[in-house]
Amino acid sequence: MSRHETDRLETAGELAFRLIRQDIIAGTLAPGQKLKLDQLKDRYAVSVSTLRETLSRLASENLVTAEGQRGFEVAPVSVKELENLGDLRLLLESHAVGLSFAAGDLDWEARIVAAHHKLSAVERHLLEGDLQRTADWVRYDWEFHQALVSACDSAVLMGALSSTFDRFLRYHLLAQSFRGKPVTDDHRHLFELAMRRDVNGARAMLQQHVRSGIDHVLKSGRIP
C-alpha cells in the first residue's frame, strides 16, 4: 500500500471515529443499539476492518461494548454511571480550575470572555424558545468550560476531562431538555468568579452546577 493510500485510510478511519462518537454522544445511536458492521460501513463510508478498529477505540472510552463473537453495541446508560461521571468530572475540573486560575494571563481571560459571550448569546435564544440552537449550546457550553481550565498546562488532564465531559454530556442530550435560566445563571457566576480568580468560589459553583445537572437528567425519566 502506498503512503498516499495509507494516509487516506487513516483519514477515513479518523472521520468515522469522530462521526460515530458524535452520534453516540448525541443519542443518534441509542444506548444498547446493536452496531451491525454491514449497515455501518455504508452509513459511514468505511470498510468493515476500519469499523472494527474504530469500534474497539470507542470501547476503550466506554462508549461501545464489545460482545466477543456477537459484535458491538452502544454502551448502555445507568444512574450509577451518571453519578460516577459527575464525581469524576468534579474531581478533574476542580483540580484544573485551581491550576488554571493561578497561571492564567490576559490571553486566558480573553478566551473566557469570548467563550462566555457566545454561550450566553445562544442561551438567550434557547430561553426565548428557539430550541434549534441546542446543538450550538452544546458546543459553546464545552468551549466555555474548556476556556476556564485552558491555562492548567496539562494535556493529560485536559484529555481526561474532555473524555469525561463528553460521556457526561451524553446523559444531558438523552434527557432532551435545556435546564433553562438556572444553568445560564451558573455560567454567569462561573464567569464572574473566573475574572476574580476566586478558586474556592468556582469550585463550590461547579459542585452546584454539576449536581443540579444530574438532578435535571434524573427528573427527565429517560435514564433507566
Number of domains: 2
Weakly predicted, low-confidence segments: 1-9
- CATH C-level class of the largest domain: Mainly Alpha
Order of helices and strands: HEHHEEHHHHHH
**Protein structure class:** mainly alpha
- How many DSSP H or I helices? 9
Report the principal-axis shape.
Answer: globular
CATH superfamily membership of the largest domain, which one? GntR ligand-binding domain-like
Largest sheet: 3 strands, antiparallel
Question: What fraction, in percent, of the residue positions are helical?
Answer: over 70%
Q: N- to C-terminal separation?
A: 47 Å
Bin the strand percentage: under 5%
Radius of gyration: 19 Å
Number of E-type strands: 3
Major beta sheet, strand line-up = 1-3-2
Q: Averaged pLDDT, please?
A: 91
Q: What is CATH's topology name of the largest domain?
A: Four Helix Bundle (Hemerythrin (Met), subunit A)
The name of the CATH architecture of the largest domain is Up-down Bundle
Structural features, described:
By secondary structure, this protein is mainly α. It folds into 2 domains: 3-74, Winged helix-like DNA-binding domain superfamily/Winged helix DNA-binding domain (Arc Repressor Mutant, subunit A, Orthogonal Bundle), CATH 1.10.10; 79-219, Four Helix Bundle (Hemerythrin (Met), subunit A). The chain is built from 9 helices and 3 strands; from the N terminus they run αβααββαααααα. The chain has helices at residues 3-26, 37-43, 48-60, 79-103, 106-127, 134-149, 155-175, 181-195, 199-219, and strands at 34-35, 64-66, 72-74. Strands 1-3-2 form a 3-stranded antiparallel β-sheet. β2 (64-66) and β3 form a beta hairpin. α4 (79-103) packs across α7. It is globular, with a radius of gyration of 19 Å. The model is unreliable at 1-9 (pLDDT under 50).
